[in-house]
Design goal:
Radius of gyration of chain A: 12 Å
Number of strands of chain A: 4
Helix content of chain B: 40-55%
Oligomer: heterodimer
Structural class of chain A: alpha+beta
Shape of chain B: globular
Number of strands of chain B: 4
Radius of gyration of chain B: 14 Å
Number of helices of chain A: 3
Strand order of the largest sheet of chain A: 1-4-2-3
Largest sheet of chain B: 4 strands, mixed
Largest sheet of chain A: 4 strands, antiparallel
Chain lengths: 94, 155
C-alpha cells in the first residue's frame, strides 16, 4: 500500500482553527487513504485527519511544524491536496 | 489553560428556553452580557457574527454538541458559556443529529493563540463520552459548574 508524507509549517496567522480544520477534513475525506497529522514543537500531538474534533484539539498555532501522513491507494494525491491547503493559507490571507 | 479560565459560570444556562439555533445563541450571548462578560450594547452585533459563522459552516461537530464561536472586536476578554437543551436543537450538525449541549466561545480579535488553546480544552473534554453524558445530565447551573471543575482537575 502506498504511503506519502510531507512536513509543513502552519503559516496562516490564525492557526488551524475550526474553519481550516473542517476544510482539511473535507479534503481528507475525498480520499480513501487514512490521513494522520503529527504535530511537532513543544507540545507534540497526533490527530486523525478525518476527525474535525481531533484536528481542532491539535491547536496548531502559526509556526507549528506538522507532518501529514497518508496511507492508502491514493496517498500521494491526498498529501499533495492537503499540503496545498496550507500553502494557500486556507484562503485566509493574501 | 482550564475551562474555568474562560467559562463564565454565572452565564451558564442549564435549560435553554430557545428551541432553535439562533435563539439559543442569543440566549447565551445575553447571559454573558448580563454576567458582565461583555457589553450589553454588543449583544446584537455578536449574535449576528455568530449566526453568520454558523451559516458558513455549522459548529455542530456531531455527538450532540455544538461550539458556536467568533472573534469579535467588541469582545475585550475571552468569555465562554454553556447551554443545555432538553429537547435538542437543530444546529445543522455534521451528523444531522440534534444538539443538546452548546458551548459558546467569544474571543477578542487579536489573540488567535489563546482562542486555539480554549478550543483545544473545550474539544478535549467534549470528545470524552463521560463528559458529554454528565453534561447532558447536569440539570442546574451548579451541577454544570461542578462538572467543569471536575474536568479541570482531570477527574
Amino acid at each position: 500500500m502506498p504511503t506519502a508524507s510531507r512536513d509543513i509549517v502552519v503559516s496562516n496567522k490564525l492557526g488551524l482553527h475550526a474553519r481550516p480544520a473542517m476544510q482539511f477534513v473535507d479534503v481528507a475525506n475525498q480520499f480513501e487513504s487514512k490521513v494522520t497529522v503529527h504535530k511537532g514543537g513543544e507540545e507534540p500531538g497526533e490527530a486523525d485527519g478525518k476527525s474535525v474534533m481531533q484536528m481542532i484539539i491539535l491547536a496548531a498555532v502559526e509556526g507549528t511544524p506538522l507532518r501529514i501522513d497518508a496511507d492508502g491507494p491514493d496517498a500521494p494525491a491526498a498529501v499533495e491536496k492537503l499540503v496545498e491547503l496550507f500553502e494557500t493559507k486556507f484562503g485566509e490571507e493574501e | 489553560m482550564k475551562l474555568r479560565d474562560f467559562i463564565v459560570t454565572d452565564a451558564i444556562v442549564a435549560e435553554l428556553s430557545a428551541s432553535d439555533r439562533d435563539g439559543a445563541i442569543r440566549e447565551l450571548v445575553t447571559a454573558l452580557a448580563c454576567a458582565g462578560a461583555m457589553p450589553q450594547s454588543a449583544v446584537d452585533d455578536v449574535v449576528a457574527a455568530l449566526v453568520k459563522r454558523e451559516q458558513n459552516g455549522s459548529t455542530g461537530f456531531g455527538k450532540g454538541v455544538a461550539v458556536p464561536h467568533v472573534k469579535h472586536p467588541m469582545v475585550k476578554q475571552m468569555a465562554g458559556t454553556i447551554g443545555r437543551s432538553v429537547n435538542g436543537i437543530d444546529f445543522a450538525a455534521l451528523d444531522h443529529q440534534p444538539v443538546y449541549s452548546v458551548v459558546l466561545l467569544l474571543s477578542p480579535e487579536n489573540q488567535p493563540q489563546q482562542h486555539l488553546q480554549a478550543m483545544n480544552i473545550v474539544f478535549t473534554n467534549l470528545q470524552k463520552d463521560t463528559f458529554r453524558r454528565f453534561l447532558r445530565q447536569s440539570e442546574s447551573r451548579q451541577a454544570v459548574t461542578e462538572l467543569i471543575d471536575e474536568a479541570d482537575q482531570g477527574k
